[in-house]
């Protein structure tokens, strides 16, 4: 797609609030700018929802709830299935749109379209498989029917790092279960979600079932957590914000799911295939320039193989080409904004000041726009204890290596964090892998691979990484409540 076509795509993507099936201006006319992270320019401006807009969206969604909740599951499923097909048919446009607003390289954006679309296909299949239960009371005194019902109007708040999939992972199961939903995308990346609203509308979603509320003032939308009509809150983002909003949701005892920050260990054992362990860095570390909640964050490498692993992993990192996300041949783009750039460079600078070695990194190639938020692929070794990079979620293309000598030490290091989202381990011995996998405190463990996402699998974390699961057979139950109907024998 050339730059004229890209501009035309941006100009034809909706920029209004999506309420009641229509794209509209904010009631106070407020807007905010969407910035291109590759050069700091303004891509477009988008309507910014006020608190009154959020209330109006909830009025509409609450009205639509009964009808949508009792719409035959097959009808709901077919809308989801058509949405899946729409997204796949529009992969190129959607990938360019994501790369424009997020800065991310096109191959990663294309992969996200497939991943995000797949939630609509998976939950189209799950919508018609919701079942209850019929039992006899153990004392013989009654019959028990368990009936699964939609929990009701739901609110979703999502981050910028997967502008389509983080929303799709919530919208698809909510709609499949029969819930209406209001979603607030991150202000860095609202265009993808507005494109998705258009896709759902064109796939036949009735008016009022979904609202999309971009805003420059997120508290305008989270104010809905104080409204008792809302029955479900689902959040993906940082632990700090998720816990704060989750506590507000708890005041109305609403059902809550939280997908929060990670600090994934990447354990390379002495008996690992080091080529496999190094190749997996391409996805586990470099996908989205490392701005991924399940990105490998702490590389824990057996001391006997550290030098060889670092040499091989450095070659993999070097093979990536930095540049504007929408440019052909680019394999990693800028970070999403000045805040991310400051954070990542701060973590590396702190480690360097404390004496770390940097076999790769330190400078950017010539020719990048000076106002882009670029950070070069970086490898750090010999990191001093106390360095912030050993405990913080990096969210950048920085591979930070520590060493261990025994499995107990590796497990102690891996679990020495409040987080427990993803983890990775590399060993050629299956029993060894299972032993370590069972001991790691994480919601997900990848063995001998750097990718860990599948709409058919339950995605989520333990400890301060979250509450609940998205995807898999489990995902739809986050939007259902079992009702016990009691009958005499
Ligand atoms: P963030 O917590 O800053 O923002 C997430 C969302 O919350 C955004 O839409 C933001 O506008 C909104 N928000 C922020 N403050 C708010 C407030 N006071 N009231 C209402 N809404 C508010 O996170 P981020 O920087 O967008 O995303 C990065 C974080 O997300 C990382 O920690 C990453 O690990 C995490 N993440 C987790 C998962 C997962 O599945 N567990 C997936 C992707 C990202």
UniProtKB/TrEMBL annotation:
Xref: Pfam families: Aldedh
MF annotations from Gene Ontology: oxidoreductase activity
Active-site residues, as the UniProt record annotates them: 259
Aldehyde dehydrogenase domain: residues covered: 24-485
Alphabetically ordered keywords of this record: Oxidoreductase
UniProt cross-references to InterPro entries, sorted A to Z: Ald_DH/histidinol_DH, Ald_DH_C, Ald_DH_CS_GLU, Ald_DH_N, Aldehyde_DH_dom, Aldehyde_DH_Superfamily
E.C. number(s) listed in UniProt: 1.2.1.-
Recorded superkingdom: Bacteria
PANTHER family per UniProt: SUCCINATE-SEMIALDEHYDE DEHYDROGENASE, MITOCHONDRIAL (PTHR43353)
UniProt similarity note: Belongs to the aldehyde dehydrogenase family.
Protein name, as recorded: NAD-dependent succinate-semialdehyde dehydrogenase
The species this protein was found in: Corynebacterium suedekumii
Phylogenetic classification of the source organism: Bacteria, Bacillati, Actinomycetota, Actinomycetes, Mycobacteriales
């Amino acid at each position: 797609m050339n730059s004229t076509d890209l501009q035309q795509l941006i100009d034809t993507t909706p920029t209004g609030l999506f309420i009641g099936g229509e794209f509209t201006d904010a009631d106070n006319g407020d807007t905010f700018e969407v910035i291109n992270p590759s050069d700091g320019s303004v891509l477009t401006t988008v309507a910014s929802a006020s608190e009154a807009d959020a209330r109006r969206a909830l009025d509409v969604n609450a009205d639509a709830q009964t009808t949508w909740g009792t719409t035959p599951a097959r009808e709901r499923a077919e809308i989801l299935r058509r949405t899946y097909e729409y997204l796949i048919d529009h992969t190129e446009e959607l990938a360019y749109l994501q790369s424009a607003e997020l800065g991310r390289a096109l191959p990663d954006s294309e992969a996200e379209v497939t991943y995000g679309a797949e939630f609509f296909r998976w939950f189209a299949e799950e919508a018609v498989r919701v079942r209850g239960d019929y039992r006899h009371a153990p004392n013989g005194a009654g019959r028990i029917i368990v009936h699964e019902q939609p929990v009701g109007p739901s609110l979703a708040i999502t981050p910028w790092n997967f502008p389509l999939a983080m929303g799709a992972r919530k919208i698809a199961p909510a709609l499949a279960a029969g819930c209406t939903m209001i979603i607030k995308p991150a202000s860095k990346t609202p265009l993808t979600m507005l494109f998705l609203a258009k896709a759902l509308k064109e796939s036949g979603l009735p008016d009022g079932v979904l609202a999309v509320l971009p805003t420059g003032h997120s508290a305008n939308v989270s104010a809905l957590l104080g409204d008792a009509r809302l029955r479900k809150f689902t959040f993906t983002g940082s632990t700090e914000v998720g816990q704060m909003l989750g506590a507000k949701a708890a005041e109305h005892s609403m059902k809550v799911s939280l997908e929060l920050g990670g600090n994934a260990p990447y354990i390379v054992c002495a008996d690992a295939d080091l080529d496999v362990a190094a190749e997996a860095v391409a996805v586990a570390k470099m996908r989205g320039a490392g701005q991924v909640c399940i990105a490998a964050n702490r590389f824990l490498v057996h001391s006997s193989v550290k030098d060889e692993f670092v040499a091989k992993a450095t070659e993999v990192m070097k093979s990536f080409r930095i540049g504007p996300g929408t440019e052909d041949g680019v394999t990693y783009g800028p970070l999403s904004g000045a805040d991310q750039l400051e954070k990542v460079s701060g973590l590396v600078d702190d480690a360097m000041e404390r004496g770390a070695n940097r076999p790769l990194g330190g400078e950017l190639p010539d020719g990048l726009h000076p106002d882009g938020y670029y950070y070069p692929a970086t490898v750090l070794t010999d990191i001093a204890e106390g360095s912030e990079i050993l405990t913080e979620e990096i969210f950048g293309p920085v591979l930070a290596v520590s060493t261990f000598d025994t499995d107990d030490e590796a497990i102690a290091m891996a679990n020495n964090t409040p987080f427990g989202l993803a983890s990775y381990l590399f060993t050629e011995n299956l029993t060894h892998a299972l032993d370590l996998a069972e001991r790691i405190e994480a919601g997900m463990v990848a063995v001998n691979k750097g990718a860990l996402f599948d709409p058919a699998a339950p995605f989520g974390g333990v400890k301060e990484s979250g509450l609940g699961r998205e995807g898999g057979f489990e995902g739809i139950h986050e939007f259902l409540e079992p009702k016990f109907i009691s009958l005499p024998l």
